[in-house]
Every structure is written in C-alpha cells, then in structure tokens.
Amino acid sequence: MIYRKDANFPYPVLSNTSQSYVNNIFDLDVNVSENADYFHFEFDYEIDSDFIREQIRNGKAQVILIIQSKDNKFFRLNAMDRSVKLHKSRISLNKRTSIQLQIQALDDVFFARNDDLSEFYIQFRDQITVPKYFLLGYSNVITFDGSINKPFELFEKKLDENLNSDIKVELGQETIIIHYRRPEFQFNHLPKSNVLNNPYIYAGLSKALLAFIMNNGEDGDVDLDDIQEPENPLDLKLYYLLKKKNVSELNMDNIDEVIYTISDRIIERYTSALGEVITYGG
Fold first, then answer.
1. pTM: predicted TM-score of the whole model, two decimal places
2. Are strands 61-68 and 97-105 parallel, antiparallel or unpaired?
3. Is residue 177 part of a domain?
C-alpha cells in the first residue's frame, strides 16, 4: 500500500507531511533506465531523523521500495542499496505508476531515546513502542503518467548538421530537446561531458518553465498547490519535478531561483567541471 496523504497512526510516523518529528524529511528521488530486457531503478533518499537512521543501521528496521502499477511490487533493501533491476516481464510501466519508500520495524522499537520527536510526543515517549513489522515512516511518492513514452527522461540530445545555429533548444511533446550542429559541441571528447552541457540544460529548463507558465498560469503566475495536473506530457513531468522539490509558486521573476532549486547546483557543478578540464588540459 502506498500512502499519498496524511494517514492516522496511533504512534509517531516519519513522513514529509507528518508533524510527529521536528525534522520530518523523508525525501525520495528516482531515475529509471532500461535496456531490451530490464528496467533499472536507481534511487536516492534523505532521512532527517538520526533515530530512524540508527534503527536501519542496527538492523532494527528495513527500507522497502514499493512500485505500484497494475500490481504492487515490494523490494526489501539493505541500508546501502540504491538500485533495483527488474525484468520487464514482471512489471509494466505503460500505465500510471507510483514509487515510494517505506520503513518497517524488524523488531519492537522503543522510542524512549528518540530525541527527534515533536514536542507533543516527547512528553510521553517512554510509553511508545512500535511493534515488529509495523510502519515507521514513508517517503514522498514519485508518479508518472502512462501516456508518457519516456516517463523518466526530461532531456534528449540530437545531432543536426543542417541547423542554422550551433545549438537549438526545442520543446518536444514529452522532452526538452537539445540539437547540436556539430558533435564536438557536446564535449564528448572531454572529461565530465554531461556536466559541461549544463548551460544548455539551463537554457532548456528556462524555456520549458516559461512555456509552463504560459500553459498553466494566470497573469504570468502559477500556484502549484491550486492547479490541476497538466495534460501536456512535458508540463506534467515538470509539475511532478516542481512538486517533489517543494516549489509552490512559479512566475517570470523567480524562474532562475526555481531552476536553482530543481537542478541540483547546475552552475556550480559546471564551474567545477570546467576547472577540472582546464587543469586536465594544462
């Protein structure tokens, strides 16, 4: 079972929307690649509770990856696991699919030394014991629409020697497409070529977010908490990305701030890679 909204539990549970913990972050990020036979789910997550992390390290709790499509698929993870390979015969990603991490107790968990609890629970934490196999926490949900053919792909790169410019950024139906007139413009001959393309990624995100505002906003402003899920496939991907990164408002004035929020230090990593290339070339 995937939890999408606040659920009522008779004990503290860690989630991004729960008030049980002072620092209640349990944030999941997922990337999926595929070959002819397998889907590869690569994920990262952040748990902002020392107590919960300690239960996982000590084997008192385990992380479970849930992939919900036609059926629910459960994968019990070790503390260091960050990927799952799944044969395509076992799951279809053509339909609406959701992914969540949950934390399950493997033994009775006593909360007497849980210093991460909110003020409400701290006062009687000595009385709290979560039984074996009960839920200790659940992450945000990663969701994509089955109408999207490339659900986890936001950018594409294409070579077009007939371009009238060196680079062209195009908004496709499902992806942001970067066209290159010459292959060397992709920096494939240099270390960290993907990061060296970050200025083009920045330009693509800026163009896509401008279109998102035009398609979904009123008077140049979009309130992500008020709008419905967009029907346009590319806008839908951006909507999920913005929501996952806790962006609540998008407008013409804050596009650069939003790109900084959703792109994981895109310019900083470009600058660092450029410095390495200069050192490498020297």
1. 0.56
2. antiparallel
3. yes
